[in-house]
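Listing S7. Sequence submitted for prediction.
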Amino acid sequence: MIVSPKIRGFICTTAHPDGCAKHVEEQIAVVKGRGLVQGGPKKVLVIGSSTGYGLSSRIAAAFGCNAATVGVFFERPGEEKKTATAGWYNTVAFEKQAKEAGLYARSFNGDAFSDEVKHEVIAAIKEDLGQVDMVIYSLASPRRTDPKSGEVYKSVLKPIGETYTNKTLNTGNGAVDEVTIEPAEGDDVDQTVKVMGGEDWEMWMDALLKAGVLAENVQTVSYSYIGPEVTWPIYKNGTIGKAKEDLETVQRSLDVKLAPISGKAWVSVNKALVTQASSAIPVVPLYISLLYKAMKAAGTHEDTIEQMDRLFRERLCNGNPQPDEAGRIRIDDWEMTDEIQQIVGKRWEDVNTENLSELADFDGYQAGFLKLFGFGLEGVDYEAECDTAVGVPSLS
């Protein structure tokens, strides 16, 4: 099958297996090029391991720390005439590279919110690894089924209290438009917290702790974002912001629970990047395009793999996490410098459809988006037939 990108709204409905493999190879090369991480974990569970920050976390652990990794995700396999999701192909490529490097890698495809998947993963850890010394929680989902009640919760991306109007970027045609978003109503906030807050992270850690598969001095990390004031009404002060507040509450609860085994829970605040999750948030694609332009000019731009490598290398594994006043690890530090934010803030005021290419890196945004699905990578023959039904080795 010859595969080309088919974009609908803020998602791409196709993925290229060879392109995804190339993207994984590029990330591995970044990590290996920086050498081994001193004091890194050796047995790592990554919940939400197939795309974005989760995938890069698994790569950083495996190829930066020589760690055995267990990955959990919910992806669709491919068929002869239909592509898999990008996360499926990413995992195929990761496991192949891990095997060639002599690294243990086992994956689980299913609903990570469910008790069933938790039990399966715990059984595998007991059988194969005994214990894990790091747990990365990087799930991003629009809905969640409560494993206890069976109730389905749905998240929304809305401001709280009042209607929000601001600039946004139509990523389909490159037009800078205005978007108006009505405020949350009813149980929108509660539903969003249930999906995107810390409850499932805590359920995972409770189950792992009860099963005895967490090693002494274990660390667990979940990811968050704060961003600049221009995005706060839809992010930090919106429904998703309430979910992130819940995440921080859970982090403090986990610190107490992990204390008997000298464990530590962290929330890592990461940089704004093109991911499948961020592309769905109004206003954010325009901000990211402006940010990319400024950070690339300053020589401080990082993608997910550089961020995760820096998190492992400079914060989690060297005894110097450098938490902020709220106890969070901040690897959005380069994004949030006064110099970068002043440039982006000024350009936000000035940007329009006509000067977008001058003030923002929309081409970089689009290229980054397509790369998530395996398109636009050098060295890949996109006119050639490819096998879309390739399987994940540890799932076969």
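Caption to Listing S7: primary sequence and predicted structure tokens for the chain studied. Residues 239-258 form the longest helix (20 residues). The first strand starts at residue 7 and ends at 8.
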